[in-house]
Amino acid sequence: MASKKDAKVIIMKWSYSRWSKYHDCPSMYEWQYILKNYNFVQTPAMIRGNDIHKKAENYVNGKITGMPKELINFDPEFKALRREFKKGNGFCEPDISTNKNGTRSTRKETDYFVGFADFFHHPDGEIPTVIDYKTGRQYPSHQSQGHAYSTFLLYQHNHFPAIDVEFWYLDDKNPKTNVKDFHFKQNELPKMLALWDKRISTMYNDTKFKKTPYQWCRSCPRNKDNGGDCNG
Fold first, then answer.
1. What is the pLDDT of residues 164-177, one digit of tens each?
2. Does domain 14-226 match CATH 2.60.120?
3. d(CA 152, CA 102)
4. Residue 131 zone, left/alpha/beta (φ > 0; ψ -120 to 50; rest)
5. Cα distances (angstroms) measured from residue 61 to each of 53, 57, 92, 93
6. What averages of pLDDT result for each successive group of 10 residues across the chain (232 residues)?
7. Cα angle value 200/202/204 (rounded, 5°)
């Protein structure tokens, strides 16, 4: 009989983007994370998105002075974040990685959730807010992303009564549609944790990695047209 010392410990380290790939298509997830055949190539949209995120970070933290034109649809909001950052009421690019026992960790050291947000607003006496900047279209999956962020911030900070999550769609000029917000309460945490445990256990225990056609099949690196082995 193997001793506890010899037993293999499975560390279920994951990020929202990793789970999202599995959710969209287990076969694509297998290609990238299990078979490791995926050569990451940034698309023009990714390059643009990264550039805008960096400009937003540098504007809020004071490294640049003028408002970048890409942020102009949120001019008053970014000016407010800049003031809050200067007061010490907010953090740019906070690492919200979390160990399985609920303690804070780092992206390199965690044994469970790996993640970071664009801005974390935490003024004294108010419900904290996680803000994520988005370029391009709105997707229903963003609610799941907000759910993940909230789950592990609430898990780390049991004194938070709740968490607000806001997605800012920087390309949308309409103030009635360019923000989506969600609210999660501390008393919902047990169910939230159970949901992610179930999702991640399913991902780690999968052995079939079923092909699931979805909207990005044409650009998938596993697609035969892109040098892979999948007919889509």
1. 999 999 999 999 99
2. no
3. 7
4. beta
5. 12, 6, 7, 10
6. 42 90 93 83 88 98 96 97 96 94 92 95 94 94 95 96 98 96 97 96 95 85 85 75
7. 70
Which token pair is 148? 């993940």
Domain boundaries, the chain: 14-226
Q: DSSP readout, 161-213?
A: SEEEEEEEETT---TTTSEEEEEEEGGGHHHHHHHHHHHHHHHHH-SS-----
Cβ burial of 111 (10 Å; 0-12, 13-18, 19+) is: middle
H/E run at residue 165: strand 162-169
Residue 155 structure tokens: 């898990």
Please choose, from the candidates 181, 223, 171, the residue with its C-alpha nearest in 3D space to the C-alpha of residue 45. 171
Reading the block at residue 206, the tokens are 């999968």
Q: Which of the 8 DSSP states describes residue 100?
A: T
Q: pLDDT value at position 217?
A: 87
